[in-house]
Amino acid sequence: MSYTTADPGPPALRLASTGTLTYGLSVGEVLGVSTLNGARLIAGRAGLERVVQRLNVMEVPDILSWVKPNELLLTTGYPLRNTPQSLGNLVADLDERGLAALAIKLGRYLDSLPAEMIAQADRRGFPLILLPNDVGFDDILNQVLTDILNRQAAVLARTEEVHRALVQIVLCGGGLQEVVDEVATLLDVAVVALDGEQRVLAGAGPDEHVQAMRAFDAGRHAACGRGGCGIIGAHGTGDHLVVPVLAGGFDHGRIVAFSPAGTLRGTDLGILERAATVAALVVTKQQAVAAVESKYRADFLRDILAGRAGDDGRVVAHCGGFGWDLDRPMMVLVAELDGRPRGADPEGKGRAKGADADGKGRGAEERSAQERLAAAWTTAVRRHDRGAAVASFAHEVVAVVGADGDDPAEWAAGPVQAMVKEASSIFAEHLPVRRTFSTGISRTVASPAALPEAYEQAVKAVRVGRQLNGAGARAHFDQLGVYRLLSLVSDPEELHAFVRETLGDLAADDEPELVDLRRTLQVLLETNLNVAETARRLHFHYNTLRYRIGKLERMLGAFTEDAHLRLNLTLALHVLRMRGI
């Protein structure tokens, strides 16, 4: 029988291992070219959709070493004329090598094909074609290759035209929404652009289709190649086409097309790939602009917290351009990553008063965590206070939030705690390893001029809070008690000298026996010299504790009788507990 096609339809294609498109003609389309009018398909009808991308001629015995996937192999049977029994195995060998089809011209070297060969081809869906005797191989090669090249050129020309149109949109000031609108119009389908967290950045098409794509796991389906993906089978009803948006080695999200009628074709992938390239340009441009704006805002907030931004009127007016409302009662929040990397400044150098906003010298992992912290705090604060100022410095995120209401302490216990809780949740959501941060909260201030002092209070609160309560601490400056007073001492050396003068040898950590004695002193003071309770807590015999008390008094003085000495010892121990702050 003869086989012809009335309408060749869209060009066939496949996805190469790299994700790039490779165009060709299906076997069915090849049978429809004029030079093969008399050709007959005698086996392997199930493989008519196999793609032909190249042609080859088999006239040597070792042809298997030279064949390539997606080839149409032409032969007169010359190398097989003496071994017809091997024809059945030939079909299996060619099919395993990914060939598209085998076309044979009978009569000169082979009179017929064995039944086993035809049965094998039907089982594997490997097309076997009988060629007319009056057609030369060169005619077939020329026409089929010409058709393949013409089809590919037409598709590439259309794709290039779309690419130029999308680039022009961006050059004229358009963004992701305009790019998505253009693609949706060209393909007559719904299209969305998603970020790395599956959030919809832009969408075009009926609302129900856009909503359907929100639940579509584009990240999982687009994992089939760094350069592109492909048509995904029906998701409920219809088809999805997914392409990753890549730029500079970073995955910025996905572009997804959805056709409830299943009208998406493989050739549409080229258009979507061009759209993804343009979308990557838009995203990187937006990120560059956002980075400049963020640095400018951070620099100005740094100047405010350092007291060098000018008078209150200038600060309020300038901040209004950022959308910040600093003409109201405010408090400062400082969030700082726990487990600061080795080499970071323990004394707070490089903070608002001259901090390196780029965080140079830190590892990529630490920078990523800091960026996540900044993004989490920005999101959380914006949800609760649209007029708040938020910026990321080298090792911390600073927020200046409103403190409206008659009772600032009550306000801090509500909205501030809600902000911190929400920021913690967002921060932990996408981190590959668990990280925490500590938060310090200042007193309420009434004007921008008082913000430098509030910032220092928040910094002290976050440092002291972490030292006293561990990672993830949340501390208000007014809740620090005596530690608040100690933190206000501007000269740390004065505190260290006080500790050495008061505790003597007990101030050091290099001798375990002295450290143990210091622990005994601390518990004694905490129990108000209750010997029985101290012995119980430390699991000492009563007489052992009495001996230790005598030894401590010989080293420190008669603290059991001198209330002032006990106060000094208590303060010195508090300062030691603040070590590293």
Q: How would a crystallographer describe the biggest sheet? A: 5 strands, mixed
Tally the helices.
18
Spatial extent as radius of gyration: 38 Å
Low-confidence segments, ≥5 residues, pLDDT <50? Answer: 1-22, 218-228, 230-238, 341-361
Structural class category:
alpha+beta
SS elements, strand count = 18
Instruction: Report the sheet-strand fraction.
Output: 15-25%
How far apart are the termini? 90 Å
For the biggest β-sheet, the strand order reads 3-8-7-6-5
**Mean pLDDT rating:** 77
Structural overview:
The chain has about 575 residues and is of the alpha+beta class. The chain has helices at about 25-30, 85-95, 115-125, 135-170, 175-185, 205-215, 220, 270-305, 310-320, 365-385, 410-430, 450-470, 480-485, 490-505, 510-525, 530-540, 540-555, 565-575, and strands at about 10-15, 20-25, 40-45, 50, 55-60, 70-75, 100-105, 130, 190-195, 200-205, 230, 240-245, 250-260, 330-335, 390, 395-400, 435-440, 475. The strands form four sheets. It has a five-stranded mixed beta sheet, with helices on both faces. A five-stranded antiparallel beta sheet has the order 10-9-13-12-11, sandwiched between helices. It has a five-stranded mixed beta sheet with strand order 15-16-14-17-18. α4 (about 135-170) runs parallel beside α8 (about 270-305), α14 (about 490-505) packs across α18 (about 565-575) and α16 crosses α17. The radius of gyration is 38 Å and the shape is elongated. The N and C termini lie far apart (about 90 Å). The model is unreliable at about 1-20, about 220-230, about 230-240 and about 340-360 (pLDDT under 50).
